[in-house]
Specification:
Strand content of chain A: 5-15%
CATH superfamily of the largest domain in chain A: Response regulator
Strand order of the largest sheet of chain A: 2-1-3-4-5-11
Number of domains of chain A: 2
Helix content of chain A: 40-55%
Number of strands of chain A: 12
Distance between the termini of chain A: 53 Å
CATH class of the largest domain in chain A: Alpha Beta
Oligomer: homodimer
CATH topology of the largest domain in chain A: Rossmann fold
Shape of chain A: globular
């Protein structure tokens, strides 16, 4: 195996100075995005290990990020979190950051693990996922001085939806409402009666996605609360609700809170001879792709990039924006009649 | 947060001696499976961190396992590897083992990463995934004295299919042929003309799965090479092939090499008015579940358990079986007509 590449090799390959390579490794937020990407591509391509930087990081602010992996629960949308982990790993490696994954069955067990790993010097910062109302983890991490960034807003906290705020509670999230707004605007091209198939009210994520539909409808055809349907997150529940609704009244399209519900809506539409009716899901999973169902893509790769940017930023050097909302992307597909 | 649990707490909760707890942590292969499971459940439940054991492991044979995470490639069956990573993490944590994930775009880059992580004392053993013909990684790891276990057989090596063998090349794999054999036996209940929809010949995994179909057919209705169809691993390719074949001749059921091909076969069957015809996939993905398609479940949780058993076993204490074939399980579902 050839000699390990040096920082000079990376600088030459990227066409930048050594200082710029060093900045990308240590203060990426001060480097222009295009340059940053070029340097990281060179690091990946050459397999450069920024050992000195990594060592400095490890002793001062270390270089290993802990992230909890939920037990596999099955289901269609679990893939989004897995994509996020893949993307985080992919982007952490060229930055000289390590990713250590650990298991835990609940928040308390997770915090015990974090404490053990931190005390053992095995991790020095944390990525939180699966945030929920009343989540004790952010408070605990703040109290113990463990830097972290959450993928997901602290739903239920005052001002949780604000774009700027408390650097003690940094988070990155996907703008769910923007996704369903785009989906609804697209669906309105096919007629004014666009239904929303959501989860029962009360989940931060689900309510946020419903809001996008409401906002687009109020601009388009006006309030249509009779077109707000709910189902728990299973294909069978969605199919049953949509079959009933399609036999009860006229609908032009259905925007769904998840791909799971979209698959149920799709099967119900086929059953009703409405293979042409637009159905839009959320999460852009392999299932939606396989069945030709349009869906809102969360872009977990952009979430991962933003999480890492916040995770390595220091309060002193950062511009103060500790919360990032990633704009999702509507993927439009034409369903084939089966 | 309460005081950290001790080994006594674990022993009491599991109803075993301290020595047994210690054995589970350090020499799990000498403890009966039921006892081992009970102790591990107690460790997980109490959140016990075997810090002494972990420290001993780290200094002597360390306690951090490195595993490569491929970039997310989309597709239906990628979920199997993610389930494996979840299961590995879930089972490593109570054993006091850490999982460090890293990215790499090819085998050479992966080996560079492994060398860096190993030299930095950050990992001490490796789980290989995605083995393939001519894979240089196992040789390299053996030459450099880095312990590893592969998920996947070294296809193409002489004796790769053997159940016992070289402790320098330990692997755990799923018995694909057993899975398709069970699927074919099930399908033969519906008639003698069971087709196999596989990938083009040449992939170790695909050829192994085809063999299971051939073996079951030779016992059942005899050789039917005309019912051996192929498609690349996309829904559209499978659908096209199956639509052609269904219009050309009589078939009673279709066993597929993957859930991706099974979705295509399912859509083709629906299109041909054959919603009742059995279609069996492989990997038991959320897509198969959502569409009610029978599928062969790889049991990645058992693979993870076996990988960890081999990874912590020492040549001296182990019984000599360094290769494990996990029996998959056929999940039978009744497809609903859409």
């Amino acid at each position: 195996m050839a000699k390990s590449p040096t920082v000079e090799d990376v600088a030459r390959a990227a066409g930048v100075s050594r200082q710029t390579v060093s900045n990308v490794l240590n203060s990426p937020e001060i480097v222009r995005e295009g340059t940053r990407e070029r340097v990281r591509a060179a690091i990946t391509q050459l397999g450069y290990a920024p050992s000195m930087a990594a060592r400095r990081l490890r002793t001062q602010r270390s270089a290993t990020i802990g992230i909890h992996l939920d037990p596999y629960a099955g289901g269609i949308s679990g893939i989004v979190l897995d994509r996020f982990i893949h993307a985080l790993t992919d982007r952490a490696t060229p930055r000289g950051l390590r990713i250590l994954v650990y298991a835990a069955n609940d928040a308390e067990e997770e915090l015990r693990r974090v404490r053990q790993l931190r005390e053992g010097g095995e991790i020095d910062r944390i990525v939180l996922t699966g945030t929920y109302q009343g989540d004790p983890r952010a408070d605990w991490l703040s109290e113990h001085g463990i830097p972290f960034v959450a993928f997901g807003r602290p739903w239920g906290e005052p001002g949780a939806g604000a774009a700027m705020g408390n650097p003690d509670r940094p988070w990155v999230d996907v703008d769910g409402a923007a996704g369903t707004r785009a989906a609804t605007v697209h669906a309105l091209d096919h007629g004014p009666r666009v239904a929303f198939l959501g989860w029962p009210t009360g989940s931060g994520t689900g309510d946020d996605r419903e809001r996008g539909w409401r906002e687009a409808m109020s601009v388009g055809s006006g309030e249509r609360s009779d077109l707000r349907w709910t189902a728990v997150d299973t294909v069978a529940a969605a199919r049953e609700v949509v079959e009933q609704e399609l036999s009860a009244g006229a609908v032009d399209a259905i925007v769904c809170v998840s791909d799971t519900l979209a698959v149920g809506a799709h099967l119900a539409a086929l059953h009703a001879g409405r293979a042409d009716m637009p159905v839009v899901g959320f999460d852009n999973t392999p299932v939606a792709e396989a069945l030709g169902i349009s869906s809102v893509e969360q872009r977990p790769e952009r979430v991962a990039e933003a999480v890492l940017d916040l995770l390595v930023a220091e309060s002193g050097t950062h511009d103060g924006d500790w919360h990032r909302l990633i704009e999702p992307e509507l993927i439009v597909r034409t369903r084939e009649a089966s």
